[in-house]
Amino acid sequence: MKFQSIKHFSVGVGGILPSMKNPRNTFMNFLKKSGFSTDITAHTHLIPYGGYEREVCSDRIILVGDAAGFVDPFYGEGIKYAFR
Ligand SMILES: Cc1cc2nc3c(=O)[nH]c(=O)nc-3n(C[C@H](O)[C@H](O)[C@H](O)COP(=O)(O)OP(=O)(O)OC[C@H]3O[C@@H](n4cnc5c(N)ncnc54)[C@H](O)[C@@H]3O)c2cc1C
């Protein structure tokens, strides 16, 4: 593939942490296979998906938002859940 006319892309890989042994290698291989340059600055972000069976409150504490793990595990959206 050739992408000469477009100057900026937002590209990423994602997965569940225990199964992502080396996300940087996975990402670089993905870039190479897809015809992108590997001369890039990469950023990583954890999506703190906690699952629905976690305890998120006790007598004097309540966790909300990311701290409670209230994010969409696929898209990473968490703002709506944090507000709710
Ligand atoms: C790159 C990226 C892109 C995202 N894009 C989207 C998107 O498009 N849509 C969407 O819905 N969600 C998105 N999210 C997720 C979303 O940002 C979070 O789910 C949401 O901000 C969670 O809100 P929160 O209030 O729980 O936590 P945060 O917004 O992380 O707020 C926690 C605050 O606590 C502060 N803090 C931490 N420790 C301390 C301390 N010891 N003392 C005092 N303050 C402290 C932090 O500085 C921070 O300001 C994205 C996340 C990332 C990383």
Q: What average pLDDT do the residues reach?
A: 87
Please tell me how large the radius of gyration is. Answer: 17 Å
Number of strands: 0
- Count of helix runs: 3
Descriptive tags:
single chain, 84 residues, mainly alpha, 2 domains, 3 helices, 25% helix, elongated, binds flavin-adenine dinucleotide
Topology (SSEs and partners):
Layout: H1 23-34, H2 65-68, H3 79-83
The structure holds flavin-adenine dinucleotide.
The site of flavin-adenine dinucleotide has 12 residues, from helix 2 and helix 3.
Q: What would you say this structure looks like, in words?
A:
The protein is mostly helical and 84 residues long. It folds into two domains: 44 residues, no CATH class; 40 residues, no CATH class. 25% of the residues lie in helices and 0% in strands. The chain is built from three helices and no strands. The radius of gyration is 17 Å and the shape is elongated. The chain starts with 22 loop residues before the first helix and ends with a helix.
In short:
The protein has 84 residues and is mainly alpha-helical. It has helices at residues 23-34, 65-68, 79-83.
